[in-house]
Amino acid sequence: MRWTASSEPEPVLAGIGDEAAPALPDQLAAVRELGWNRLELRTLDGTPMADLSETAFARAAEEIRASGVEVVAVAAKIGDWSRPATGDFTVDLAELDVLARRCAVLGVRTVRIMSYPSGGLTEPVWGRTVRARVGELARRAEDAGLVLAHENCAGWAGERADRALDLIAHVDSPALRILFDVGNGVAHGYDAAAMLRPLVEYVTHVHVKDAVRTPDGDTAYVPPGEGGAGVEECLRVLADHGYRGALSIEPHLHLRPHLRADGGDPGRGDRAAFVEYGRVLEELVRRVRHTRTDAEAVR
What we know:
The protein is α/β, with parallel strands linked by helices. 43% of the residues lie in helices and 19% in strands. It has an 8-stranded parallel beta barrel, surrounded by 6 helices. The relative contact order is 0.15.
């Protein structure tokens, strides 16, 4: 299937809620304003989903249920930039246990993970540690009916397609797939579309952001299609493969969560910017669809 006609399946559009606002009511309102009705959960009022109290989670789950909004993914801290491969693995196992219970309540299967910064380990030891940890996590996720979506971000397999494929082959579980963020290549120094092509058959979830490198070597985030991430090209690669999962916006225009780990100010979400970002993505998706429709008509 390709995004070539309105009768064919297309990806669904969603957004990471805390990019719009800290509080759940505003996150829900932002995706409803876009008419998408789908939300990815990362934090509520700054608290990660697994760290919410039982009372706070129950209240949030009821609010989501009453809103009619579907949760498409939950972002975990498992293996992310704050948890090196030398850290306590039981912390990750405990988080997965909590999220397994909470995802069942929310009716969602996809949990975002990463593959651990090295923490000073040599490359061979780092790789073996990651394979072992992610293998155990995937076994537990499979038992719980979850899919761990490994993001091309922090960690051993985050910046190289060959390592991501190695990890999937080693773990050999339907509970481990790829979350591809089309904007991460700018910050991490690789061509996103080139990395996506060998991974696309394993992609189960997509984050959309765009960025440029600044003269001082930092990364500045911009609306999709205005930076150097190759957003439209990545959308075409996904379309060619018939991807029908979520395209979830992560603007980073006003919120950069990883800065918190370095003691910086991560900022906070902005609803108006989030909605405008979503409108731009809608136009990019239409452009890809119409281009393919025209190409099919010529053939």
